[in-house]
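Retro notes (design track)

What went well: tokenization of the new backbones is finally stable.
What didn't: we kept losing track of which sequence belonged to which structure.
Fix going forward: every design gets posted as structure first, then sequence, in one message. First example under the new rule, 357 residues:
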């Protein structure tokens, strides 16, 4: 607390003090007048001066004492540090401030204990979710393998279609588990990335291969319009997740549209030294009123409510990961015509630079 602020807080007391002095001097003057003695103005002025000096000294002493209390508090507020700065408040300033320090320390102790309990509970829950997701991925892989083996046998067309439908649902389950796993991992993002030169073409082909059943069942054809492979510095695992979410959405909103043209066009190209992956579908598109909110968490919009397959987390996580990696993601869409999602890898800007500064 600055001295001028301290004085402002005590203006009322200062005014009352001078009113009290004035009343005392007035009574003294009336007494002198009643006794018909000579009134000495110098003595009155002298009284005011002495009173003002006494007031100034008392205010200064009190301010110096209280400054010892407010200095560590101001330091903690300005530096935005941990609340442990309250332990630096001196003892024995006054009974009032000793009492305030006890309250601050007690509340801080309660806060720390509550926070530790929350962290412990959250970590236990996250560890359980992590183990459970990994446990569920194994039976999903086994079921997928069994379906592929059954499809290779001599079966009738209806049975084959049933297997394909089951396989499509297994793909949805697999994508859901993958998204849940990455949602947990993003909390420890700084501990879970590896920067290296990655092949964008290789990542795209891997994602397409992982979604081949969904492409085949829904008669959707991916087309990669890039002859040259382009390498960027980033994290392979996280970039693959981003591309997977975009392609998964492209499939999801292309299959529900009654159209023969269900191609998904994927381009990798350079623009102003930046590298761009553009993924364009001819699906149902995003309504204009939803376009600005597609990156908000849990926002499903009109399409999500209409087709009941959206979690509202895919694009949100993709945006968050791009920000952390130093990339960006943009979306353009026309309702009824399709959507184009672009991931931009800026030249000279990536998490590689951030971690080496």
């Amino acid at each position: 607390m600055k001295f001028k602020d301290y004085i402002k807080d005590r203006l009322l007391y200062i005014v009352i003090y001078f009113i009290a002095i004035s009343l005392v001097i007035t009574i003294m003057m009336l007494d002198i007048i009643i006794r018909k003695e000579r009134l000495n103005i110098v003595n009155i002025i002298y009284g005011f001066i002495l009173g003002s000096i006494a007031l100034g000294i008392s205010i200064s002493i009190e301010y110096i004492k209280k400054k010892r209390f407010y200095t560590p508090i101001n330091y903690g507020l300005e530096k935005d540090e941990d609340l442990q700065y309250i332990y630096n408040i001196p003892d024995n300033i006054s009974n009032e401030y000793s009492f305030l320090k006890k309250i601050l320390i007690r509340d801080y102790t309660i806060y720390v204990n509550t926070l530790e309990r929350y962290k412990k509970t959250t970590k236990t829950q996250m560890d359980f979710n992590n183990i459970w997701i990994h446990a569920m991925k194994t039976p999903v892989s086994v079921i997928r393998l069994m379906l592929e083996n059954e499809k290779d046998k001599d079966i009738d067309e209806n049975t084959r279609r049933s297997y394909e439908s089951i396989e499509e649902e297994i793909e949805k389950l697999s994508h859901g588990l993958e998204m849940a796993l990455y949602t947990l991992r993003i909390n420890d993002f700084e501990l879970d990335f590896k920067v290296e030169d990655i092949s964008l073409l290789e990542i795209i082909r891997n994602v397409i291969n992982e979604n081949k059943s969904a492409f085949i069942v829904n008669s959707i054809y991916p087309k990669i319009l890039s002859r040259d492979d382009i390498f960027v510095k980033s994290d392979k695992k996280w970039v693959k997740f981003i591309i997977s979410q975009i392609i998964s959405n492209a499939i999801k909103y292309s299959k529900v549209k009654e159209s023969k043209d269900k191609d998904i066009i994927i381009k990798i190209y350079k623009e102003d030294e930046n590298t761009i992956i553009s993924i364009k579908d001819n699906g149902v598109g995003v309504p204009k009123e939803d376009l600005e909110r597609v990156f908000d968490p849990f926002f499903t919009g009109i399409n999500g409510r209409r087709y009941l397959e959206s979690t509202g987390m895919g694009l949100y996580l993709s945006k968050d990961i791009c920000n952390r990696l130093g990339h960006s993601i943009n979306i353009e869409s026309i309702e009824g015509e399709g959507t184009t999602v672009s991931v931009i890898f800026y030249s000279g800007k990536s998490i590689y630079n951030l971690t080496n500064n």
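Added context from the reviewer: The chain has three domains: 3-93, 130-188, 196-346.
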